[in-house]
Design a protein that fits this description.
By secondary structure, the protein is an alpha/beta fold. The strands form 2 sheets. The protein has a 6-stranded mixed beta sheet with strand order 10-9-6-7-8-11, with helices on both faces. It has 14 helices and 11 strands. It is globular. Bound molecules: 5'-O-[(R)-(carboxyoxy)(hydroxy)phosphoryl]adenosine and zinc ion. 5'-O-[(R)-(carboxyoxy)(hydroxy)phosphoryl]adenosine binds next to α7 and α8.
Length: 409
């Protein structure tokens, strides 16, 4: 059962109790504990989890506001901010949990994929930490961690289908085990969150009174609620390519051309807010949703044709920052309803980057004894790291047609 204690004061009051309950790991009677550390992009996160999946303490520092101001993530700035905050964030997670470093059974840290400079900060900090405290180290694949987070929250058995959509990634995979994934589709250019962020920037939504503190994806979701999606009928990408890969650069191009046309029509300069932002947001969001839904539909049909999912209660997990978009969730729900899959989206807090998902992946690996290294192991980070066994060519060769489904969202 998940016991999540958000209240810091309560956490402090409980900490002596937790120390007794979880502390005596050496006696073999108590739960093993894992510290998870995340720095792959622009969030510095840390969390302490028990082997049963209880979140004992966590802390997160988001760089979002800084990057919003500079119009995108500048890797050197992200690196500097991780350096400034990592020690405090890890200490807060430990303090909230009432766990001493010596009580940890392992430290799990994201080492791939991600921004090189950001990954480097988390890895260096973690290696120093495990060497100082003689703790085993578990290197974590960021996308595997996103894919498995749901299992912390509710029982979901392998195998299941997973759609991961964030600012850096866009992929469809079958999760068959903790370290066993089949890749069915990935983006050929940019990820949907990146596209939404760039469209939001081109629309200067940071100047919009309702959007100044929101990420691009959040701003577009908010404005789209008051928009008419049919006013700008953008073409859904890759209609003639019968695989499960994604492409968003062409859509961004269509949207940019529309923005330029509307700026000319309204007689305003680039950088000023268009009167039709809501309609552009609605049409962009709708096209992203349809594209994701169609590729996912083909992935489901491919899995069914090849017996990759259980016939009883097959499940689709949707995670990553873009998965917090309710309109996109509804579009995916239309497809899962039509194909008999059970759709599960973790709450937004668990869809975006955090230390909990990394600690949980560490717990899953610790339980199975997979990928646990000694503290003095030589580990490097990998900015680019594919997920699992690549089946994208087989999916393309199968060329499965997808029946047309009306998107009544
Ligand atoms: O998973 P995440 O926190 O970080 C990585 O990219 O790994 O995802 C952040 C991305 C950003 O591109 C942001 O614009 C997008 O997720 N996002 C959303 C929403 N909330 C965040 N996109 C669409 N709708 C949302 N509600
Ligand atoms: Zn992520």
């Amino acid at each position: 059962m998940l016991i999540y204690k958000a209240n810091k004061h309560l956490q402090r009051l409980l900490s002596p109790f937790k120390r007794r309950r979880y502390g005596d790991v050496s006696a073999g009677k108590t739960s093993r504990l894992v510290l998870g550390i995340e720095t792959s992009c622009d969030d510095t996160g840390a969390a302490v989890l028990s082997e049963e999946g209880t979140i004992l303490g966590e802390s997160l520092h988001s760089q979002k506001e800084v990057h919003l101001r500079t119009g995108g993530i500048i890797p050197a700035v992200a690196q500097q901010l991780h350096r400034e905050h990592i020690e405090r964030v890890v200490q807060e997670a430990l303090d909230h949990s009432g766990v001493d470093p010596g009580q940890l059974s392992a430290v799990a840290t994201t080492v791939k994929p991600g921004l090189a400079l950001s990954l480097g900060v988390g890895l260096k900090f973690s290696l120093d930490f495990v060497r100082r405290h003689h703790t085993p180290f578990i290197p974590i694949h960021h996308m595997e961690a996103h894919a498995l987070t749901v299992r912390l929250l509710q029982p979901v058995s392998f195998p299941f289908l997973v759609l991961l959509v964030s600012g850096g990634h866009s992929l469809l995979a079958v999760a068959r085990g903790v370290d066993d994934f089949l890749l069915l589709g990935r983006t050929l250019d940019e990820a949907p969150g990146d596209t939404l962020d760039k469209v939001a920037r081109r629309l200067s939504l940071i100047k919009h009174p309702r959007c100044s503190t929101l990420s691009g994806g959040q701003a577009i979701e908010l404005l789209a609620k008051d928009g008419d999606r049919s006013r700008f009928p953008f073409k859904t990408p890759m209609g003639q390519t019968y695989d499960c890969c994604f492409s968003f650069a062409g859509l961004r191009n269509q949207v940019t051309m529309t923005i330029e046309k509307m700026e000319a029509a309204e007689g305003i300069d680039r950088g000023a807010l268009l009167s039709c932002v809501n309609d552009i947001a609605a049409a962009t969001q709708h096209t992203v949703a349809c594209h994701l839904a169609k590729r996912m539909h083909r992935a489901i049909l491919f899995c069914k044709a090849n017996g990759l999912l259980p016939s009883l209660a097959p499940t689709l997990i949707v995670s990553g920052g873009v998965a917090s978009n309710e309109y996109i969730r509804r579009a995916l729900g239309v497809i899962t309803d039509a194909t008999g899959l059970h759709l599960v989206c973790p709450p937004a807090k668990f869809c975006t980057d955090n230390g909990v998902m990394i600690a949980w992946n560490g717990v899953e690996r610790l339980r199975e004894g997979k990928g646990i290294l000694p503290p003095d192991a030589d580990v490097s980070y990998e900015p680019k790291a594919p997920l699992g066994v690549d089946l994208t060519s087989q999916v393309k060769a199968a060329a499965i047609p997808v029946p047309r489904i009306r998107m009544n969202i």
